[in-house]
Design brief:
Two copies of one chain form a homodimer. The first copy, chain A, has 154 residues and is of the alpha+beta class. Chain A is built from six helices and five strands. Chain A binds a DNA duplex (30 and 30 nucleotides) through residues 23-25, 33-37, 39-41, 43.
Amino acid sequence: MKIKIDDIDKKILLLLQHDSTLTYKEIAKKINLSLSPVHDRIKRLEQEGVVERYVGILNKKMLGVGLTVFSQVTLIRQTREVSQIFDIAIKQLPEVVECNFVSGSFDYLLKIIVADMEAYHNFHQMKLSTIEGVSLINSFFVMSEVKSTTEIML
Amino acid sequence: MKIKIDDIDKKILLLLQHDSTLTYKEIAKKINLSLSPVHDRIKRLEQEGVVERYVGILNKKMLGVGLTVFSQVTLIRQTREVSQIFDIAIKQLPEVVECNFVSGSFDYLLKIIVADMEAYHNFHQMKLSTIEGVSLINSFFVMSEVKSTTEIML
DNA sequence: TCACAAAACAGAATATTTTTCGATTATTCA
DNA sequence: TGAATAATCGAAAAATATTCTGTTTTGTGA
């Protein structure tokens, strides 16, 4: 599952996860290499799946999706069957941008992005709470986003 | 702050936030338009800041950063001064990929990505708990990532 | 409804970037 | 050391992005 990455790969990955519009030429210059190895390495990293995908990051406020909510969800039972139903349902909800199964006093922590409180209310009542097996939902509303990045430390 | 977006813009944004390697030609074909308007619209959306940036998404497991932790942080006081110190400190920590100021029984919810438990222990003791004003830290460990996307609903 | 202005659009040119390819250099391992 | 493999380089070819010119559509006010 884990793959060996050398220092040059690491430099390339750090650049790409920060700004994927960099051209091969620009990357080559930044890491003091010629075009070919940069090209070959990036293609290899994409091929191997180290780079999963390239995406555009949008400005939520400008698009009028202004409310982020974290919801702690507890299921009636922690059986594989109940979890599986929940997992499948969550993946289909576009409002849910992150869903993690966690240790501790609840089962799942969800990150939900919606337009406003009305939209969240509707989501909560019509979609989240109607998923089979959901027992408890405890929500926290984001008042201010301090930091948000897709860049992981290498 | 909010900007008006028509249906064509919306289609383009949905495509770009899913896969930014699509060429203008491919996008043009998908939304039944010629190259020029697609080009002009994308450049406008970038210019306006609706598209904030383009990034590569990396595979955490392959890179050996296998532990995700959510930490609820409470400060000694909720004054502007204490918050400001915390905000600045958090922005400088590469382990913290998300930080939100939330309503409820604690002040901040952090998402932290590290290599393993040892790395988290070190981060907790050396970095997070040493930030001035931090009073309580309550951590939840991710056992399984069910969903993770950067795509927001439009 | 008409005239006008502004915006959106199409197609062709030019410039830039990506991709491919053969040759050279470095590295690894017996 | 020597052979085999991998990595790198430079240049040409292909694909894409960008720019430009002209046309069509849309919206507005008289």
